[in-house]
Amino acid sequence: MTPSRPFLGETTDREKAFPDIESLELTVAQDPYEHYARHAWQRESRFTKTDIPRRLGCLNPRCQQGGLDLEQIVLFSSPGKHSYYCNGHEGTPKERRKGDPCDNRFDVMLAVVRRPSRSGKVVRSKEQRLGYLRGKTTDGDEVVVSVAKIGRDYRIGYGHRDHLCPPSVRDMEGVKREALLVFHVRDAAFEPQ
Ligand SMILES: [Zn+2]
Question: Where are the domains of the chain?
Answer without folding.
Answer: 14-112, 120-192
